Amino acid sequence: MALWGGRFTQAADQRFKHFNDSLRFDYRLAEQDITGSVAWSKALVTVNVLTREEQQRLEQALAELLADVRENPMQILESDAEDIHSWVEGKLIDKVGDLGKKLHTGRSRNDQVATDLKLWCKFQVNELITAVRAVQRALVETAATHQDVVMPGYTHLQRAQPITFAHWCLAYTEMLARDQSRLEDALKRLDVSPLGCGALAGTAYPIDREQLAEWLGFSSATRNSLDSVSDRDHALELMSHASISMIHLSRFAEDMIFFNSGEAGFIELSDKVTSGSSLMPQKKNPDALELIRGKCGRVQGALTGMMMTLKGLPLAYNKDMQEDKEGLFDALDTWLECLHMSCLVLEDIQLNSTRCKEAAEQGYANSTELADYLVAKGVPFREAHHIVGEVVVSAIKQGIPLEQLSLEHFKQFSDTIEEDVYPLLSLQSCLDKRNAKGGVAREQVTYAIEQARARLA
Ligand code: ARG
User: Fold this and answer.
1) Which atom of ligand 1 is least distant from the CA of 82?
2) What's the predicted TM-score (pTM) here?
3) CATH topology for the 14-105 domain
4) pLDDT per position as a tens digit, 367-406
5) CA dist., res. 358 & res. 353, Å (int)
6) Candidate from 113, 231, 306, 328 with most ligand 1 atoms within 8 A of CB, to mutate
7) Is pLDDT of 8 > 90?
8) What ipTM is given for this predicted complex?
9) C-alpha distances in angstroms, 179 versus 47, 119, 448?
């Protein structure tokens, strides 16, 4: 049953109907549409459109419908209703007859869909916060178990200075903590109810919208009806938060793919999250991580798509806005799944601490230490930097690390170098020295783990 038949004498072309209908994707708003309808029915009692008894019958029928939907959500897709709002109303009329036709008094699908979507977003944001926290927890626990695994830290993908695997884990924990705080912040703006704004100009019934908002679990009602039915900032905002977080996850994935490569060999991914090659029997491919990296693209695409859809739209509601859902659902589903996968990947990674340490030793990652040593002995830093560069070239020629060069050899480059240089060139010393807040020294890392655990408890 179409909601708007009276004005029309011809049936819709089937191809147009398919093009126009949104049920095949907005069926996911069923619960929210029912919840919104119950609240609206209560509001209609306050303005004498429904009697208390009628409202109770409607609420009862809506409760039954909710139970049906929860039991079998896919039944919705068997209907040829235009959208989830028509579907709920149609089902209600099937259950209670003409009384069901009173529910839409003073309401429009425009304030209805805006309300449904915000309710859905609020629910989904909480799911996402839980998932973002789970990945942080997995990272922190991985850090705690691998506090002493030394590996090279990179800039330009060149071995730069030694770090620990724990320190690397904690870097991603920070990114996800910011993702979490962005979600928490988004909740504040999501928490305002558009219901009771009608089609665009407000509802003609003297409804207490603040009370209505409260019934729906919103902390207040929106201030302007035109804005309320045409605002999709929350969709943009969540897709933008998803995009940023997916960028974090894609970098996490890329680092791990590299760590897992034959060239690095720092970690080995579990069989549970890798796949084989149909041709090359030796292969174990990091598919889970590659998909996390790859799926980042579609999330950015959904955000850009929706921004372009909303750009230049005149006030108030336009059908263009129906395009908000598919991208948003896909972006948030994808993000949630990638968060879950990230936990799974971390669950049983194996570290090869020997390989990690060798790589840290081989990359001349302690060159900065030698320069700092010269500076401490009074050599200006620029000069020290140059001297160490020459020492490194010579060590590379011999194929040995700095700490294995003889003192005589060192002295060819600078007289100031003495026996006391050797302890400073050890990996452990490189780490220990970086003991200011946020540094890689064990004391700082242990403190960071404690702090993160407390935040995530
Ligand atoms: N299916 C529509 C959407 O998702 C519901 C709102 C329809 N409003 C309208 N005036 N046609 O946006």
Assistant:
1) 1
2) 0.94
3) Fumarase C; Chain B, domain 1 (1.10.275)
4) 999 999 999 999 999 999 999 999 999 999 999 999 999 9
5) 9
6) 113
7) no
8) 0.97
9) 43, 21, 18
